Input
Amino acid sequence: MAETAITQVRYDRFRRTTAKRLTESVITKPQVTLHRRAELTALESALGPARSADPDSGVGLTAALLAAVARAVRASRINGTVTDRTIDLHTGVHLGVAVDVAGALVVPVIRDADRLSVAGIGSELRRLSELARAGRLRMEDIADATFTVSSLGALGVEFFSPIVNPPQLAILGVGAVRSELALVDDQVVAVRRIGLSLSFDHAATDGADAARVLDRICRGVEAADDLLRAGNTGNSTD
Output
């Protein structure tokens, strides 16, 4: 019988850290994931003119989604961290964004994301992504996140169950965008929808609280004009 070839892949420091943290999370946190779709039709239509007016503005779908998430989770029961004795809820949002760099997962942090415009988030995300690809992220670039967003939509995944990154309380998984037919005012119309999956630590947050936050995220995504109009104050659409 012919022997099969074996390729050994060593754990680098990023992989070792990720494995340790996620194993700890699965073992110590009772995690639940809620799934929902948000309609993108209005947002995608609104983004076209904004990008045409200034292609370098940083205004794009990813930045808009992150802006909606940051404003929705602000001062909520899922924006924070947990210790052995306390649940520390944060009024502001330091948004971790999972980035796949050469097979390694890194999570740079957009600080005070709830106070940034869509263009501001896009600009900061581009800066951090460039640092990540160049291997130049500093410790302060990846520290102190209060909530994380991870996306597999570009790979065709519609829904998944992301693992909460301790000591955070929750994480949002962003899935693929799909075109669907829907009944609107008794008319069949084409709509665009995106899958969103919110995993949360059920020991720290109740399901109803998490569901309300996911509802705010979806409503924020669907309120395209309010989302794109909000400036550096990050005015909520609630």
